[in-house]
Design brief:
Two copies of one chain form a homodimer.
Chain A (H helix, E strand, L loop, with lengths): L20 H8 L2 H10 L5 E2 L9 H14 L2 E6 L2 E6 L1 H7 L3 H12 L4
Antiparallel strand pairs in A: 1-3, 2-3
Helix pairs in contact in A: 1-3
Chain lengths: 113, 113
């Protein structure tokens, strides 16, 4: 069955209070995923195909899934597009200061694109 | 050749200024490794066999290696024992506030031993 006619499963998101620190740290431990997070920090929402990352579509899908299932981002579908947003409020409530501290560390890491 | 008579290679440690954020986040994304970090936060040095973690020795060796190669801990050998210490100063200089913020997040994560 071609992908386009298959019904997509609902996108799974952890509840804010269930966001797990190890999942978040793992999600942030990859440069492509961190690039996505860094971009989403500056805008409310973005279509998944529009991130300036140089990886295969299947790899990018995996990265978005890791970010979503860890609770770092939320995703919603509209027509044929999927939009991502950073769960800034949920993350700040669950782990105060973590996201900002990690992004400040990223700026010192010397290799962020 | 039995392990005991084999000369051990020198322990590799990254320079403080070369500590990589992604390596650090990956190192901290595991509960056993985080337990080691949390314990080392409270004492200057500890022999590797004395951590209260319930994993096989080979698994524990792997965890120490990941922590050391990421720059999170330093290790030294003395006679037949290997001692570990947190690289608190190096980490704080490289990524200010990161370690404390992650450990504060750990306290909120609800599953730290």
């Amino acid at each position: 069955m071609p992908r386009s006619t298959r019904r997509r499963p609902a996108l799974a998101h952890p509840e804010a209070e269930s966001i797990d620190l190890y999942d978040v740290l793992h999600a942030l431990s990859d440069p492509t995923r961190m690039t996505i997070v860094r971009i989403l920090r500056t805008e409310p929402e973005r279509a998944c195909g529009t991130f300036p990352v140089d990886v295969a579509p299947s790899t990018l899908s995996h990265h978005f899934k890791v970010l979503r299932e860890s609770g770092v981002i939320s995703q919603r579908e509209e027509a044929n597009r999927r939009f991502s947003a950073l769960r800034t409020v949920d993350l700040e409530q669950r782990f105060p200061g973590l996201l900002d501290t990690v992004l400040a560390a990223l700026a010192r890491n010397g290799d962020d694109a």
